[in-house]
Write a structure and sequence with these properties.
- By secondary structure, the chain is mostly beta strands.
- Helix content is about 0%, strand content about 25%.
- The chain contains no helices and seven strands.
- It has a five-stranded mixed β-sheet with strand order 4-3-1-5-7, with no helix packed on it. It has a two-stranded parallel ribbon with strand order 2-6.
- The protein is globular and about 30 Å long.
- The relative contact order is 0.30.
């Protein structure tokens, strides 16, 4: 039996769309390449305090509606959540 132990790098991240800057108050959502693109368009909290690249954990999508393209060359080990708002 093998187990996957979650680490800080696998914490839930919130899709911040085309916004790659930190501190904008909330994840904005919207269209873009969402997994594996390498851009810092994910935030680790619902306030958008720190944007980072995809870490491969749990993903939450909310905010503006948009088409999400799953980028190439990524590892996905978590869950996807689609929320009306954060």
């Amino acid at each position: 039996m093998s187990a996957l132990i979650p680490t800080a790098a696998m914490a839930q991240q919130y899709w911040d769309g085309s916004d790659t800057t930190s501190g904008n108050g909330a994840p904005t959502g919207g269209a873009g390449t969402s997994l594996g693109g390498g851009a810092a368009n994910w935030t680790n909290d619902i306030y958008g305090a720190t944007n980072k690249a995809w870490a491969g954990g749990d993903a939450a999508f909310g905010g503006a509606i948009g088409v999400h393209e799953i980028g190439s060359n990524y590892q996905y080990k978590g869950s996807l959540a689609f929320k009306a708002k954060f």
